[in-house]
Amino acid sequence: MELLVLGIGLLGLLVAALLVFLVRKSDPGDSVMVGISNAIRQGAFAFLTKEYQYMLLVAIPFAILIGFVISPYVTLSFSVGALFSVLAGFVGMNVATLANTRTTQAAKTRGEGRALDMAFSGGAVMGLVVSSLGIIGITALFLVFRNTLHSSETASILVGFSVGASFVALFARVGGGIYTKAADVGADLVGKVEAGIPEDDPRNPAVIADNVGDNVGDIAGMGADLYESYVGAIVSALVLATLADGTFDTSKTSFILYSVGSGLLASIIGVVIVKFGARFGKLKPAFGLQLGTIVASILSIAVQFFLSVRILGSYMPFLATAGGLVAGILVGAVTTYYTSSKPVRMIAEQSKGGPATNIIAGFGVGMESSVLPLVIIAAALVGAFYANGIFGVALAGVGMLTTLGATLAVDAYGPIADNAGGIAQMSGQDPSVREITDTLDSLGNTTAAMGKGFAICSAALTALALFVAYSQQVGLKAELFNLLDPGVLAGAFIGIAMPALFSALTIRAVGSTANLVVEEVRRQFREIVGLLAGKAEPDYKKTVSIATSGALRNMVLPAVLMVAIPFVSFFLLGKEGLGGVLVGSTLSGTLLAIFMANSGGAWDNAKKLVETGYLDGKGSFVHKATVVGDTVGDPLKDTAGPSINILIKLMAVISLLFIPFLL
Amino acid sequence: MELLVLGIGLLGLLVAALLVFLVRKSDPGDSVMVGISNAIRQGAFAFLTKEYQYMLLVAIPFAILIGFVISPYVTLSFSVGALFSVLAGFVGMNVATLANTRTTQAAKTRGEGRALDMAFSGGAVMGLVVSSLGIIGITALFLVFRNTLHSSETASILVGFSVGASFVALFARVGGGIYTKAADVGADLVGKVEAGIPEDDPRNPAVIADNVGDNVGDIAGMGADLYESYVGAIVSALVLATLADGTFDTSKTSFILYSVGSGLLASIIGVVIVKFGARFGKLKPAFGLQLGTIVASILSIAVQFFLSVRILGSYMPFLATAGGLVAGILVGAVTTYYTSSKPVRMIAEQSKGGPATNIIAGFGVGMESSVLPLVIIAAALVGAFYANGIFGVALAGVGMLTTLGATLAVDAYGPIADNAGGIAQMSGQDPSVREITDTLDSLGNTTAAMGKGFAICSAALTALALFVAYSQQVGLKAELFNLLDPGVLAGAFIGIAMPALFSALTIRAVGSTANLVVEEVRRQFREIVGLLAGKAEPDYKKTVSIATSGALRNMVLPAVLMVAIPFVSFFLLGKEGLGGVLVGSTLSGTLLAIFMANSGGAWDNAKKLVETGYLDGKGSFVHKATVVGDTVGDPLKDTAGPSINILIKLMAVISLLFIPFLL
To answer: What distance in Å separates the CA atoms of residue A496 and residue A474, rounded to the nearest whole number?
Structure first.
């Protein structure tokens, strides 16, 4: 029966392939548009290729280490886990950079519905490939090794797969996050501020790098992040699905695999609804996107109820998975509230006092916005535990990600629409084209806010599930793992410091990489004769390459630190102290990630609100103040915050893999 | 023998009285100076009086509740604890507002040494009165009730005293913090920015309110905060100093009381050294201030070693107290580093890119600066526990505060020097006078950074000590109070959200109070004919009164929330879950308090650095960017951050007092 799940995974890949085919055969537009799209495409691939080369330098010794310390099988699963993530990144990036110009062209010739269809099809490939590869990898490894090896060895192999996923996510999210903001700052600071040319102007040597950044940060990075969460949640649930004698409880493992399989199927249905709703113009874009996600969620929940009662003989496991999903949706809704509506208007109002009051207001909004999500996560935790014990906590993590195929599709569609707008601008299309892409883009911003909340909530629940699996694998005893133990408490203090350290390092990395980009852009403006007059072409490739190597060089220190901390903590404070570190970093990591995502989002939207004419409109004193807020928020919401999501999961999964063997 | 400790407490009051006498008989300067000083004085007393009236409205029902739920004795100790804090606040404020104009006059007529002498004498009164009253209150209650009541009842009475201290600290620190920043923003925004008149200009209707704010925020607020820490640390140590049968272990209690008594004596000696060193001009100001603190610390540590070996027969307890002191000094040193030297120069450099890069740089510095202090606290925790178990944790809290008399003297001296500078400016003294007060003020800024780090570290250790005492009093069992329990973990999630919620509320309170002040200042500029021409006087009192009532009204919501949260958490999650809330809030509270204090301090000093001519100097583009950073940092470092110190201690001490009776 588990073969059926593998089949659904393959079906997901098939649908994705079909979508790629449909995108590919659409009209890519005129040669100028295609030229720009190709430049973005080449830049994105150049970045990804170099990023993965850097990664190999670390991944190969790490894989060998795993082989010696643990087992060659785990080296294998680690490699497959990493490879699948790389594959998903390339496929997603490929279709995204095909879809962008086709979205512009569709907006130009066939209207809003078709443009949405195109952008969403691109996003859906990412969503489907990520979840299909996750399901295929986990199910295949589980089926192959379950009957040949001991359960604990099979568990290690699954965890290895998850570590592989985390490893790629680290590079994709952190490296991509540094890249995208450095390019953005470089393009804005020299182009908009110093040279006085508009955004997305083809004369700007950093304009392609900026568009590449949207792809590598928001598409490949987001994809790798959620792939890591997805795999981590499923693996920790499988690891916890054991009987008293340590062997797998097959009804529990079936429940998990069937749940994620049916979730993928529901996601495919959701994707089809959105796509055809858009294509035939039957649904309004905002409603269509929502409808797809809602249908997928309802179908998925319904099947889980049936599976829970039939396979496990109780609706309690269903309550845990559904609780996770509800928590994710609620956190997303809170995020949406704080990055739109009243709080954003308040920030805009406060900007009348200048940049300082704008920053203070956004800071307050960000702090406040973290409260409800933390309470929601606490409630989900308690609910899941009472429904199904420690296993329930892992199920909650799985539950919120079962429809990842659909939710990630909606997330990844935004940056494609954004890119399409850039291409419209750079290729000098009629303003009406830009209007359509702007509508789609602003819709994307709303769904992105939801998606970010979802990603943070899933990172927190996955990190908790992995931590719980860790506690079982290393045999943490309740009476030793208590908060009155000085080692545990000290671990928690050190743990809460880690996301702060990591934020400081990534923010600084953005600063130094941005400086390199700024210098290069200035140099080109100075040295390339006739550039500003539009008579000569800038050297886009050079800028891309400088941003790429800068971002990757500057991510080495934070990356190495992150991998080292679990080991150092274990040697200093023991397995209980390391447990404290994991909990502490999950706690403050969740707090800071929400704060950064929401303050950044709220500043961004306050600026956009003023630009639509609210208060004194574009160019006014108020507008300038909101631009400062937006610039401050950018590295928080797009680099430091998302990196924290990786930090807390990676530390947990590395501990889960290695510590049982170091004991 | 414990009577000797009472005697030292009385000696401290005597020395303080002598200092008041010496300050009082000094030359207060000409009638303009005295007039300004009186206005500040009246404003400060008006604020304190109104603040305490507001407080009574809450304190009286609370005291009655205590009498019914627990015992009338505890109502008594609560009232005495609160009363002593009020008393210390009035005495400290009284001498500070006497010393400010006399410092200006000394700078004018007798040079730097005498000016330092005067400002420091004012600060020393605050330091000595706070620690003397703390010691007298605790020792007297302990001696009176130890032999007449059961140990657990005596413990409750001591905790009641501590809750009284916390209650006043809440109003002083939060209300004062909101007031001082609202007045500051109001004065700057309308005076400096809109009307274009310099800082501390007598034509500005908010100038007195601004100076009042320095006193109520930095002197009365800081004093009440550290009084709360001091009392909380000693009380939690006494509560934990019990034998197996629950009665007091008299050798342990003696050790605690002798340690704090000898610490006060050492502080008196330190104060004398600074005072006479300054008076006779034998020591450079910076060196003199340091020497006093260092001598007090060394003397205090030496006596603790002797007491530890003699009374408890081991140097282990000494290691715990000394460890606490060392931790406090190290955290102070880290704070000093991040708010001066390299990080500050880096922020100034980054300000070349405008306000946004200034903010991002300061944000990164603040995040990074929290890492080492958290590790230091973790190390102190582990060290103290291995030295002397749970009791050792409380001893570490006591250890770092034994020389509070000297350290608080140095802290409280800064705002007096700052006020003296304001008076020099407003009364139109020769620039050379302002130069002297500026030197003293900038020296005060350095010691203030140290003092803030110290206050945060002491708040964290005291909160932990109170939490540990709570865990003993409610009988938390290790196997139930573990991090795998969903209630504990959920409590930790809710706990980490509390400092964020509280920061958002206090930041918003500053905003709305500042708006009231801004409107009033604008009104006066508009309606009082000839004000800007210097031909009419502004209505200082009106501004003071508006800022006062605004601040107090806006602190009601955060204050009520803070008191309610322990009860709500207990009813929802039980005593273990409440333990999780206390630990969670201490964790994120420490992180956020350090982040806010240090980023705020670094932004402030980056601005000052540029004003001294670094980079492009005052009035330049870089300078304007640093002004934005300074304005953003102000409510963080002076309102939200310090309020968190109170939050974590108050929640712990309220739980410690009430929950044993609610069980």
So the answer is: 22
